[in-house]
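Aggregate trends can hide what the representation actually does to any particular protein. For completeness, the protein is quoted in full, as a sequence line and a line of structure tokens.
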Amino acid sequence: MRKPNKPARENISPSDLTFALSTCKRCLWVKYWYKVSAPMVMPLVGTLSRLQEEFFQNADMPTIDPSLRPGKVTKWSEFVKSKPIQINGMDTRWRILGKYDLLSTNDDGTAGLIDCKVSESERDSGAFYSPQLEAYAYALENPPAGKSVEVASMGLLVWKPTHTLGDNPENSGFGIYQKYVAVPRNQAEFLRVISELISVLEGELPEAGPQCETCNFLTSRNALDLL
């Protein structure tokens, strides 16, 4: 596959520091150089995310978790963009561009960043999502223009569906178990991961990830044409 003279997109999505980088570097490379991605069908994700964000709009942070600094959720579902990412003190062509879920304005002038999840995954321990949250924090603390915002805390707000509610079709729903998972700041790990991602993007077409369902399907499908 020929590498174009310029990537089709130069804005790095924070979520690509978790799922894409750990699953298939080839699909990641194709996404940025050709702007081609496998279709994803998750019809309820947007609805559930919106319900979570709406539920916590203007919430006092300590009511979400006592460990959080006094403040209030003042922003939600907003895009943030960073200045060019620096690697070894040099600007790259790449920037962070993504949309966070919840952001607080704390009484001390700092901010709290919260990523909402509806999940039963063991990856919700926080370590898996740390680079993604750090990417949002990087954009807030390193904007291309205007005042930066110091991110004092990061965390996951997890909803795990556990049971049904209601006794008729007009009054029914799901009950959930809610937990807040604090994610400690780890800027060094973020810089390591973002450096790896940029190295992949700036290189030649990588090998497919062995567990990549998309690449495995394409390989099997193309093999049928040879029969």
